[in-house]
Structures are given as structure tokens and as C-alpha cells.
Amino acid sequence: MTVLRAAAVTGLTLPRALEASGLDGGCALLTTPSAYRIASVTGGTCRTPEGVVDLSAVYEARVFTEEAELRWTEERAVLLTEDRAPFPPGFDEEVEDLEALTTLDNRYLLWGTVDDSAEPGPGWAALSSSRVGRLAVPMATAVPRPEGHHRRVRLLTREYVVGDDHGNVHVAEERLIRFEPYLVKGTA
Known about the structure:
Layout: E1 2-10, H1 14-21, E2 27-31, E3 36-42, E4 45-48, E5 51-52, E6 60-64, E7 68-73, E8 76-81, E9 93-100, E10 102-109, E11 113-114, E12 124-129, E13 133-138, E14 149-163, E15 169-185
Antiparallel strand pairs: 1-8, 1-9, 2-3, 2-6, 3-4, 4-5, 6-7, 7-8, 10-14, 11-12, 12-13, 14-15
């Protein structure tokens, strides 16, 4: 059995929640009224290849590393982890643990193929497609360049499966883990 632990804090700005969570080196999905950004996290800042992101318009964020995920809205921050270590100071609002019967690793394929002509810099992969344009994704691992493969990126998540008194099971929660390279055999 896997236990997903959570703790919350109310009233923190996004930069303060980022600092408090200790998720340096993580990835952030940032939602504003006019844009959706993918960024890397350092201290209380989020960066794209263009520079520091203005967080003042962000109303929802999901920040994640392999160990934990921070979910932030304008009013509340919740930190999710399987780690038994104490939560960072400030995350003192109790949230009920989730006892999962099992976990399932899941992957979501991102739009676009790796575009070497739009190299955003070290630690990033540039994806390009006619449908969504260009998208820079923070990547801890470079996407390999084997001949005869489409180079893609996918998002790894972990689903937490629970059961009820009637024997039914369902996915009760999903935590974001990391972006990873993905190769598809075939020619472009």
C-alpha cells in the first residue's frame, strides 16, 4: 500500500509558496487569464528560456519534482508527497492521507516534435507543431537523436488507486512527476 500525504497552507502568494515548498529544480505549469506557461523553478521564481515569469497574473499553478507536487490557487497551497519526512514549515493545515491500494504510472504525450532549429538552451527541449506552434519544456535529460525516430516529450504522472466497501476501485488522485524523452520509430 502506498500513502500519498498532503498538507496545506492558506494565504501565501505563489512566490512565497514556491520558496516554502522547497521544490527547487522542479517544473511549473502556470495558468493566467491570457497564457499557459511551462517553466522551471528556482527559489521563488519561475523561468522560461525568455527569462523570469511575472507571477502576478497567475491564478493557478502546479509545480512538481519526482518527490512532490505543489498545487497553488490564489487562496491555498497544497503539497503532495509519498515521502515520510516532515512537511516544510508553514504547511501545517492537515489534509487527510490517501491510502492507495496500488499506483499506476501514466504518460501523456505532449504536442509537437523536438525542434532543433528552435533550441531554447541547456535544460530545455523545444517542441513544434502546426497546431500549437512552439513550446519550450524544461528537461533534466536531453532527448536523444537516433536516426529514423520522431523525437517527442511526454509527461510522467502517478495515479493513486483506491477501493470502496463494495469492491469498486478508482483513481482518486494523480500526481505530476516529470517530463521525459520519448522516441517513436519512423521517419519524419
